[in-house]
Amino acid sequence: MTKWRTLLLATIGFNFSFLIWFSFAPFTGPMAEEFGLSLAEIGILASAAIWLAPFGRILTGWLSDKFGAPVVFAIVLGYVGVFSMASAFAESYTVFFIERLIVATAGITFVIGIQHVSEWFEEENLGMAEGIYAGVGNAGAAGGALILPRVFGADWSGPLFQSNWRAAFFYTGIVSILLAVAYYVLGEAAATDERRQATADNATLKQWVHTATRYGTVALALAYVMSFGLELSMNGWLATYYREAFNTNNLVLASTFAATFSIAAGLLRPIGGYVSDVLARREMDILPVFKGRYREQWTFVSLSFIVVSMLAMTLAGLSGAVLIAVAAGFMVGMACAFAEGAIFAQVPAMFPNSSGAVAGVVGGVGTIGGIAYPLVYSSVLLPNLHVGYALVAATMVPIVLLNAWVYRPHIAKRATIDGFLGSSGATGPADD
Q1: 148 closest CA partner among 166, 160, 128, 132
Q2: CA distances from 333 to 56, 130, 327, 398 (A)
Q3: b vs e for 394-415, b when ≥16 Cβ sit within 10 Å of the residue's Cβ?
Q4: Helices 2-21 and 140-151 sit at what angle, rounded to 10 degrees?
């Protein structure tokens, strides 16, 4: 069926986007040596991978609603491939930094695929479908950590490059361009012409402002800061953390440790969406609060799990045992996966005709965590590299409390209507 082909196409495209997005992470050691980078500068490079994502996701979410996902996805994959290939030839760190900044916009494809999948799947299965898409897609970071340093090892000597990281950037760029062509040729924008037209008609500035400022959008966007934003920060940082904090000088081993987090954060994400679907279908309360708000209850539990697991990450690191820290990292990845799946089960269910625009806001704002958190992890003000996780956990508590406030039944039932810039004056969901 076409909807399953759409899910497969979107998942492959996003999986590779994630791989090329964080393709720099396994090679921070040799890149730092060649360009003379300090540990703090590596932290900035990890943070810079997210700089353009907030605006890019907001824009492409709206563009996907307006023009259809296949066109927008193909354009992004195409230019990302070109700049990835170009970065392989950079001799100046300034030029290299700018080119990798553009390559890092591969991460904006997330909201394009979210919109594409939502145009083909019915509401009762959205959480599962979006969870499969995003979960397997996010695992592309693990693929990069596991595959790239093995294919392009320290002893790499190829026809074009003597540096393994340059070869990795060049050849992944070629694959990106090929995927762009495949997505444009094989992709279909929506299940019906009527659904495609309804989505396009809803892609107005007035509607975007309305959806971007509603309680539901704001709460989920901030929740995504502490879930997906956290995931981004860990994907770019953990290989460095395991290498520097535990003197794990083996590049492949440190990357493998880091990949355990990415595997959990990616492959377990469908569980988060599936549980949300099941609770909604069965109308099952799992908390004594937020009665009747089934998806919201699961999201709240998942967000709380993230805070607890981040505190555990600091304690595990302070133990000095790298394998305990790896296990804690896996737990953090699991918590991120559950929360992300829960959040993006809610988004298209709440805003069926503006899923791209809302996914753009939630996904775009969510990436801010990926910008800010690596700067905390690598801060010279901290006594060691383990304390940063607990500090980040403390910043998450107000977000959890805001979501709890929005999830109260009398607010949650109008969360797509009322917001921080006032009420639309409507009496029912504005996006129906």
Answers
A1: 166
A2: 25, 18, 10, 21
A3: ebbeebbeebbebbeeeebebb
A4: 50
- What span, in angstroms and rounded, lies between the C-alpha atoms of 118 and 292? 24
User: Model-level pTM?
Assistant: 0.77
Among the listed residues 5, 3, 42, the one whose alpha carbon sits nearest the alpha carbon of residue 25: 42
Query: What CATH number does domain 204-419 carry, 1.20.1250.20, 3.40.50.1100, 1.10.10.10, 3.90.1300.10?
Result: 1.20.1250.20
Residue-range domain boundaries for the chain: 1-201, 204-419
> Digits of tens for pLDDT over the chain (432 positions)?
788 999 999 999 999 998 998 888 888 888 888 888 887 788 788 778 778 888 888 889 889 988 899 999 999 999 999 999 999 999 998 899 999 999 999 989 988 998 999 888 887 888 888 889 988 887 787 777 788 888 888 788 878 888 888 999 999 999 999 999 999 999 998 878 887 888 788 777 777 887 788 899 999 999 999 999 999 889 878 888 888 888 777 767 887 888 889 889 888 988 999 999 999 999 999 998 899 999 999 999 999 999 999 999 999 999 988 899 999 999 999 999 999 999 988 888 777 777 788 888 998 899 889 888 988 998 888 899 899 999 999 999 999 999 999 999 999 988 888 887 755 444 444 454
Which is it for strands 422-423 and 418-419: parallel, antiparallel or unpaired? Answer: antiparallel
Q: Which CATH superfamily is domain 1-201 in?
A: MFS general substrate transporter like domains (1.20.1250.20)
Q: How far is CA 173 from CA 98, 112, 374, in A?
A: 16, 20, 26
**Residue whose tokens read 């790298």:** 322
Measured CA to CA in angstroms, residue 97 lies from 16, 78, 104, 112, 372 at distances of 21, 19, 10, 25, 18
How wide is the angle at C-alpha 217 spanned by C-alphas 214 and 218, nearest 5°?
85
Task: Tell me the HSE value of 378 on the side-chain side, using a 13 A CA sphere.
Answer: 25
Please state, in angstroms and rounded to a whole number, the distance separating the CA atoms of residues 418 and 73: 32
Q: How far apart are CA 406 and CA 349, in angstroms?
A: 16
Q: Round to whole Å and give the CA distance between 167 and 239.
A: 20
Instruction: Write down how long the chain is.
Output: 432
Start-to-end C-alpha separation, the chain: 26
